[in-house]
Amino acid sequence: MKIPSLIITLIVATTLVSLGQEGTLENAKQGAKKAGQTVKNGLETAGEKTREAAETVGEKTKETAKTVGRKTKETAQTVGQKTKEGAKTVHRKSKKALNKTKEETGSQESHQSLK
Predict the structure, then answer these.
(1) What are phi and psi of 92, to 5 degrees?
(2) Alpha carbon distance 37, 115 (integer Å)
(3) Local structure of 115: helix, strand or coil
(4) DSSP letter at 59?
């Protein structure tokens, strides 16, 4: 009777060990699933943050380009205006100098014709 009891005890012990290993295997599977889900969530969050950052950079770049374009246009207009004013001043001064020269030449001619 000792041998059958020993055999039954061994079978029960082997069965319990086997069931324990299956429980451990299930725990490992569940842990792996949780870890995988955590990694997936982390990647999704990183992807969202990267997309948001890219959108922000895109908006800032667009705003900067508009500002640079506007400033360039304003500068070109200012330079054009200054050039136009400068040309008018030069023209006016040249005309004045020419008239003065004509007057001087005319008065010298009348002086010479009086002699």
Answers:
(1) -60, -45
(2) 116
(3) coil
(4) H
Find where tokens 């990647």 sit: 43
Distance CA 26, CA 32 (A): 10
**Cα–Cα distance measured from residue 112 to residue 54, given in angstroms and rounded to the nearest whole number:** 85
Residue type, 73: K
Q: How far, in Å, CA of 73 to CA of 79, rounded?
A: 10
Tokens of 3: 């041998």
pLDDT in tens, 3-53: 777 677 777 777 666 656 666 667 777 888 888 898 889 889 999 999 999
Measure the CA–CA gap between 29 and 35, rounded to whole angstroms.
10
Tokens of residue 55, six digits: 């959108």
